[in-house]
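Section 5.1 Outputs to date
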Amino acid sequence: MSVLGFGLSIEPQLWALVFVMVRIGAAFIAAPVFGAVSVPVMVRVTLSGAIGFLVLATHQVVPPAQVFSAATILAIAAEALVGLAMGFVLQIAFAAPMLASEVIGISMGIGFANAIDPQNGRSSPALGQFFSIMLTLLFLSVNGHLVLVEMIVKSYDVMPVGAAWMGAEQLKGIAFFGGYTFLAGLLLALPVGFLLLCLNLVVGMLSRSAPALNLFAVGLPASLAVGVIALAMAFPAMGDYMLVIIREALAATQNLVLG
């Protein structure tokens, strides 16, 4: 009877752990670094379970009375929506370097240089991979992954399990933060992009004044050389702005969860 009683008492805790892991796992699927293709699924599940134990230790979580019911399915969908929204906001910010690389790469003449991105497993510009790796390293250096885990745990205070539906204002905030990607990407590419634009104007005027001049033989090597030198000179400032992008993304995630 004692063994039977222990089994009956441990089953609700297991269901509560699985219920809590839905939000955490959804956030890890959508968030950068955690959601990379190179991160095994077993690692994500293990991390979700470890953080789930932390949530159960600090919050009172009541599992659903019936597993296969409409209310339980809606509650699980709400938990997944909250987790996906938290990770998606950070993913939006990580798209800014890709936009900057497109602007710079086309001006430099290396927009055709693509490679497989280890983060998402898709083909992306080589310059964009360099920016993405630097942004990821800066994100880890400022403990952004720990801040994300902290916000996930704190989200259970504002959005308890089973009552975590997101309002229209929160969804509106996600949509408006999507515009920040274009702003951040253009500002990140502004120093190098403006210099390359000036170079293209000069090459265009030279081609008009000397029609016999081979534009591709002169303009493409000049754009590539000036672009590499400009990147080397402007990267300290670009690194500082990448930190601003990370802070804005974490602040947007905090506003989404905590208000």
